[in-house]
Amino acid sequence: MPPLDSLDRNPGNSTTSAAPRRPDALRRRLPKVADLAPLLKFKAPALPTAQNRLQGANTIADLRAIAKRRTPKAPFDYTDGAAEDEITLNRARASFRDIEFRPGVLRDVSEVDLAPRSLGRRRPSPSA
Question: Model pTM?
Answer without folding.
Answer: 0.37
